[in-house]
Structure formats: C-alpha cells, structure tokens
User: Fold this.
Amino acid sequence: MNRKSKKMFALTMSALMTTSLALAGCSSDEAGADGKVELTFMFRGNPEELKAYQATVKRFEEANKDVKVTMVQTAPDQYDTKLKSAIAGRKIPDVFFYNPAQVKAYVNSGVLLDITEAVENSEDVKLDDIWEKGVDKYRFDGKTLGEGAIYGLPKDLGPFALGYNKTMFEEAGVPLPDKDKPYTWDEFVDVAKQLTKDTNGDGKMDQYGTGFNVNWALQPFVWSNGADWINEDGTKVTIDDPKFIEALQFFVDQQLKHGITPSIGETQTLDTYQRWLKGQLAFFPVGPWDMAAFKEQLKFEYDLLPWPAGSTGKASGWVGSLGIGVGSTTKHKEKAAELAMYLSADQEGQQALVDAQVQLPNSMEIAETWAADTSIQPENKQEFLDLINDYGRGFPAEKTYTAEWYDEFFKNIQPVLDGKTSVEDYVKTAQPKMQKLLDAAIEQEKQAN
Amino acid sequence: MKTKTISKLYRTEQRYAYLFVAAPVIGFFLFAFVPLMYSVYGAFTNWNGLGQMKFIGFENFVNLFKDEYFYKSMYNTLFMMIGIPIGIVLALLLALALNRGIFGTNTFRVIYYIPVISSIAAVSILWQWAYNGDYGLVNQFLALIGIDGPNWLQNTDTVKPALILMAIWKGLGYTMLLYLAALQSVPKSFYEAAKLDGANAWQSFLHITLPMVKPVTFFIIVTNIIGGAQIFTEINVMTPTGGPEYSSASAVFYIWQKSFGNFQLGYASAMALVLGLFIFIVTLLQFRMNEKSSFDLD
Assistant:
C-alpha cells in the first residue's frame, strides 16, 4: 500500500464509520424535537380493519395532543416475519399485535412489558367488561398461562361457530336445528344426507351436507369426543388416544363413507367456501370476520348452531385471538400502555369495528346488545358469545413454546383424508414425530429461561 | 500511473473515484458482509431470535443431517430446477424466432417480457387462481380439449410441475432477451461462409449459433441455478403451508419457517450456511467445467 492508498483507506474507513453512526442515530427514539411523545404501532389486517384502526389511532391522537403515533401496517401474511425481524433486531415496536401462542416466548425473552398495573388502574378500561377468557390468554406468571401478570389485551376474540343454510333447510322441509341442543354425530350425518342431492337432475350431485377444512374444523370433533392433541400439562402428544382416532375417523368418513361432502378432487377450502357462498352447502363454519362478506354475498338466510357433539354429549369449538402488547423497550411506558388499552377497549373504536362487521365487540356490554339485535344476520349471534363464555377453547399449540409439533399433524394428513392411509396407521407414525418436536420445544423453552 | 508526476486534476479525480467506489463497498460491507458473518456465527448457537445466543458447536449441523424435512426441502428445491433447462431451450427457440424479424417482433418481445417485470408476489396470486381445481383458468382450458384437470396445488404429484411451469413462464422473457442480444452479435459473415461451404440450417445452428451464444448460456445457467436454489416467494404465496405433505417446500421456505415460525434462528442459520456452501460449490464446479470446454475464436 503506498501512502496515497493508505490515506484513501483511512478516508473510506472514516466514511464507513460515519455512516454506521448515522444509521445508529436513526434508531434512538427520544421524544421528538417538538417535545411530542412518539409511539410506533405495528398492526395487520384486511383493508376494512386497517381503516377502522387508523381511525381509532387518529382519535387517540386527538385525545392526547402530546402523542404522535407512527403506524406500521402490513398484510396479514407478512406480519409475523416483519414483527420477528423487528424483535430480532431489538427494534420492538412500542405497541403491536401478536399471537397468543407467543406469550410464553415473548415474556421469557423480555419482549413484552407487564401492563397489569396500567390496566387495573385505568379509568377507561373496565377489566370486568372485557372478556375474561380474552384477557386470560395474555396472562402469564412465568409458569402457567392464564394466571398472573397481564402482557397484553385482546384485539378481539374470534369464535369459530358452525353455520347452516336456513333457506335450504326450509326448501327441503327439513326441521331447523335446535340452537340449544347440539346434534349427535349420527343426527348430523342424517340431516346432511337428506340435504345432499342432485337438484337439477343431471345425475351429478350439486348440493352437499358440508365440506370442512381439516385445519380449521377438526378441533370441534376431537374435543367434543373428549380427546385432544396434547395432555393437560402440555408434555405429551395424545393423538393416539382411541377417542382421538374415533373423531378423526368420523371426520374422514364424512367424505369417504357418508358422502356428505364434495368429492376428493374438490375439497380445497376455497372451493367449499365458494360452494357455501353459492348456497350449495348445508353446513359451513362461520367466524365473526365472515359477517361482512356474507351479508353482501349470500343470497340465502343463514344462522348459527352448536357444533355436533361427540361422546361427551357437549359441543366444542375454538376461539382464536390476536393480542395487543406493549414492547418492553418502549421509552414511554404509560402512553404506550394507554394506546394499547384504547385500541382494545375504546367504546367508539369498538363500535366502528363492530359496524364494519369484521369482529366481535371486546366489551361484553356492547356484545350483548349486539347479539340481541335481530336486525343483524345471523340471528343466533349468541352462539358466538356462548363459544367465548362457555364451551370454546384456544388452539392446542397456544400453551406450548412453538407450534411446530402441532403443524406436523396437518403436514402429512392428506392421504388420510383421501383414504389412502388408515387413521390408525397415521396416528401411529405421526405421534412419535410430533412428540419429538414437542420435546424439542420444551427443551427450547428451558434454555430460553 | 507509471509517470511519477501525477497532475493535480488527476489526483482529485482519483479521490472522487474512490469515494464513488466506497459507496457500494460500504453498502456491501454493512448490508451483506456483516449480516453474513453474524449468521455464520449464529449457525453455531442456539439463538432463538429473541434472547441470548449460546455457543453450541456443531449441534445444529448434527441435527440438520438427521432432519428428514431438510432432505425433503433440498430434494424439492433440486427437483424444481428441472425447469431451468426447459426454460433455456424454450427461450432460445423464441429468440431464434424473434431474431428472424417476423411480423410483430416488438409486440412479442413486450409480451414475453411483461412477466419478468411483474411483481413475483402478484404473479403468484394470479397463478394460484389459475391453478384452482374448480374454477382455475388452467383447468377451464384443459376442459375445452376434454381433459379433467387435477387440483394442481393440492396434489403431491402436480404441485411441483405447476410451480415449475410458472417459474419457466416468469423467467422466459429475461432469458430470451439475453439470447436475442447474443444472437444479434453473431457476425452475419459466419453464416454466409457456412452457406457457401454447403452447410444446412441445422449445421450452421449447431456449429455457429450455439458456440457463439455459449457465454450467454453459461451465464444463464449459473444465475438460474443460484436463483433456483433460493426459490421462496412463489412457494410462500401459492402453498403457504409448504404444499400437500410438504411436497413444494423449498430449502429457503423451510429455513424461513424454522426461523420466523419456530424461533430457531440458530438452526435456520446453519441450514442457510449449508445451502450457501452448496450453491458456492456448484457454481465453482460450473466455472471449472466452463473453462475446460471453452475456446477462443481468435
């Protein structure tokens, strides 16, 4: 290296260092130059949801003149990647949506701020008025989920109920289902068979009992039969339980034995969803987020009923959720917690979301009035509330460190649905694989502590 | 630079030149090299992306070579590279056709180039619809000629061919354009000489055109293999769960799932390292082979 190039090297290095300093400078998030508290809020949703949340944030800014909220929004499918990159880079947003399955991991690694005090002392949030089950999903005392400190509030709860095509029942002269007494599995198949027919006489079926997607509709059958994917304390995969096998067999038989669903070549969700929209299915799952689309697109009346009950005689179903948490690194703990509470419990904001028919109200009071309002279809919205209050559950993977073991179950299930692999054989091969992944997740959790 | 006295102007210019060179060098250093080294280190830790990194030696690699999904995703990735030779042959044929100056050449060039400049995510969504078993364009078209098409993306036998077909369609325009440029730089006199010597069209294609475009072919093969090894977006969009029985999951898709779905950034880094080494070795081999078989015209 001659002298000149040495000099240039020094120059380059200093330029490099200046650049990295400048970059580092960007990350410090002190209160802005004009003395305002700056918060970042990272969230996701479909266009209607995004709009509703933007409006709620605007109102929050108006009520808190000293706060400026920077909104970072993404499409639902990219959200997790973005959030996790932000966390890995230690740029945790001040307020953000997150999945309840991640409570353990995030709390253990110090990503989430404990907001118990803020919530309990708040004047605006009446803790008694928010779904208890909803808040419990975000409680963790370091050992057991659902107990201890609050690490977030529900953005919403998503009970996945079963719907039926009322018009189809009436036209076929089949008695409407009882909204308080679930069908037994046999009754369900019976009714579905009556409604599976060839309506235009071309020799091909064009109306079916149902068409469930295994990823989202197997749970109610398994649970109502007294089985589950995992044992109570979350250490053992229990899919080889005879009760579980029975439930999976019943699920598979809907297509293979009873023929109450469209044929194998046509079972993709999108297709059964389209068929439901076209009025070709008698039963189909309905979530609160479907209501806006169904109101617009369904040319028939629909209503809700409890999921068919297995050997326990009781209906079951899942209740999903998305949480609003506060990042542990936030510079403005109080304001960030306030924003999170505002988003979860602000009456006006909740009303806007409910009016847009994209979610259930978080406030039990509003929810009850809403459920009783017969002008909004479906009539039996109480079923949603029953799922939340009474018989609904969270996903099996919510209580474990990662969901990999649970995903494994669905990865190779297609041959079972197609009848190429027997249910017994499948659970026998899948159980050890899932157990191995679960053990790894438990190990991972221990190491992270 | 040999003269001892360098003019002042030259010196200032040189200084500026270094500054210009510095921009990409710094960029590479900050945004590629540092993260790369970080991830290499991460491969030897149990990093979960949230907390501390603990050094665990080769444990990740030991587990990796026992992981059936790693092999499966690598196999899927290699399988989907079948599209590369098919794409190259098609692109060369198209380029040859368009090079003859047939009517509407410019229009065709545009048509074939549109997929290249379209966003891969948007294109993937379109193809996802096209492949829909009931309502998809592909099956509607097949129905016209009396074929009952499968549910492309939901079937283990058809999901990979479906993705390959889309990749070919997407890359065709770019490859074709490279070939067009290469074809146009072949001196006409070669063909004239060959004709005088009595060579037929096939002979002049085989002995003039092909050797003359060989550098471009080499470039395309190398870049396509590097790109093909990293296939991800279309798979993530079209088969978000990795396809039926994980049969469309590529290596990068699996890496992504492990790191961002299951908090195993250390393990995922190890996988990325293996994939990176694999690409490096394959590319190196290609360069070696190319050197052996290349020749100079002059």
In short: Chain A has two domains: 37-158+320-390, 161-319+394-448. The CA atoms of residues 214 and 410 of chain A lie 8 Å apart. Chain A touches chain B at residues 4, 8, 11-12, 15-16, 19-20, 23, 77, 80-81, 84-85, 87-88, 105-106, 108-111, 265-268, 270-271, 274, 401-404, 407, 410-412, 414-415, 441, 444, 447-448 (CB under 8 Å).
